[in-house]
Amino acid sequence: MEKSEIKGFIAKRVAKELKDGDVVNLGIGLPTLVPAYLPEGVHVILQSENGIIGTGAKPTGADAEPAYKTDAGGSPAQAAKGGCYIDSATSFAFIRGGHVNATILGGLEVDQEGSLSNWIIPGKKMPGMGGAMDLLVGAKEVIVAMEHTAKGNPKILKKCTLPYTAVHCVTKIITEMCVFNVTKDGLVMTEINPEFTVDDVKAATAADFTVAEDLKDMTA
């Protein structure tokens, strides 16, 4: 698979997980591509943890002002028609109260126990952790959308080596190679990209996993 195709491929598969009317929180980077791939007839309510419920299209030009209207990643943002701006305390009460159907985040590492590390490396010019810890324990579904490896090194491990963002929280991992469900018995590969074999996935994965008997084509 061409490097330039990977993020769109993952985002398109993630979009299939969302249902009409879901309240969804998107992490920065790859997850923000997901709305462009929603199936016909599926409309979701995007929530930004810094205080928007019903986030609209990214503003441009004069609409991008004033600068204080941003999403959680610091990019210009606005509420869509019917959406609203709320204070941070209310926003996090909304998350902690279990009102977010799904959160989609990237990850530096995720392990076979469903624990996630997505801290930003110190010193990099990137936003901080934001609401990730609260979202991981407050959202009903936690989907990690990321490339399977980083510079050839596995990102799906037996145990995370970086500081945890939260433990035992991830419900599904979607990469360009496959889809893993996180169960109480460990990772189960339920779908595979036909460009790869099961052995390819094993070679790129440091975690233990089983393969579902009815393994499906993730492009179908």
From TrEMBL:
Name of this protein: Butyrate-acetoacetate CoA-transferase subunit B
EC number of the protein: 2.8.3.9
Pfam families: CoA_trans
Keywords annotated in UniProt: Transferase
Similarity annotation: Belongs to the 3-oxoacid CoA-transferase subunit B family.
Species this protein is from: Intestinimonas butyriciproducens
GO molecular function, one term: butyrate-acetoacetate CoA-transferase activity
Record InterPro entries: 3-oxoacid_CoA-transf_B, CoA_trans_fam_I, CoA_transf_AS, NagB/RpiA_transferase-like
PROSITE patterns according to UniProt: COA_TRANSF_2 (PS01274)
Domain of life assignment: Bacteria
